Hints:
Elements lengths: L3 E4 L6 H12 L2 E4 H11 L2 H12 L5 H13 L5 E4 L5 H14 L5 E6 L2 H9 L1 E4 L5 E3 L19 E2 L6 H15 L1 H8 L3 E5 L4 H13 L1 H4 L1
Parallel strand pairs: 1-3, 1-4, 2-3, 4-8
Antiparallel strand pairs: 5-6, 5-7
Amino acid sequence: MVNIILLGPPGAGKGTQAKRLEEARGMVQLSTGDMLKEAIAKGTDLGRQVEGIMARGELVTDAIVIGLIEAKMAQGGDGFIFDGFPRTLKQADALADLMARTGARLDAVIEMQVDDAALVERVSGRYTCGNCAAVYHDKSHPTKAAGVCDACGSTNLKRRPDDNAETLKVRLMEYYKKTSPLIGYYYAKGLLHSVDGLAEVGVVADAIGTLLDKVPEIA
Ligand code: AMP
């Protein structure tokens, strides 16, 4: 089983590809963004603590997300897809420590390359199914019947409160200031691979699949 990181700015398609990998390969998606959103939805102390920060598009503290990832990894299993984590060098070091402690190995970091103009278009048209988490887009991938999820038939379709042009600017700035240094960090570790995140979803999935099939050779 391989452990990978999907790295890229908001809207690069990390969540979409993580879900496909879960289905195709039985890997487990670990999305800190989803964990935090769940905490907000449940109204926990953590949820109340992070709600404003997330609505503004800023990053929550390293300690919070490292704690969340540590707890999930402790539940066992391997073949993790880290989606939206790590987002800072400190988080990357913490992940390396966690892996070393549990005898796990990080096999590959897949950078999903996209340009900023495309991100604004993608993120501002994005909506998801509140029931099964399928991802849609107003222009590129609308539901077949308006307001009804293709996958599960639910009418609970939602837009993320932080998927708007203004918040996206903050999220992008956070990405370039704090997360993009991870590209050099993982390159130096010999783990970095890049795919064209602007290609059609299936083409991106194939490119990632081809990389993963080679992992024993490339690691
Ligand atoms: P995402 O769904 O990955 O775009 O995450 C949504 C929001 O959750 C981000 O804009 C951050 O506020 C917060 N978040 C998620 N993952 C992290 C992380 N690894 N470090 C800091 N903040 C995070």
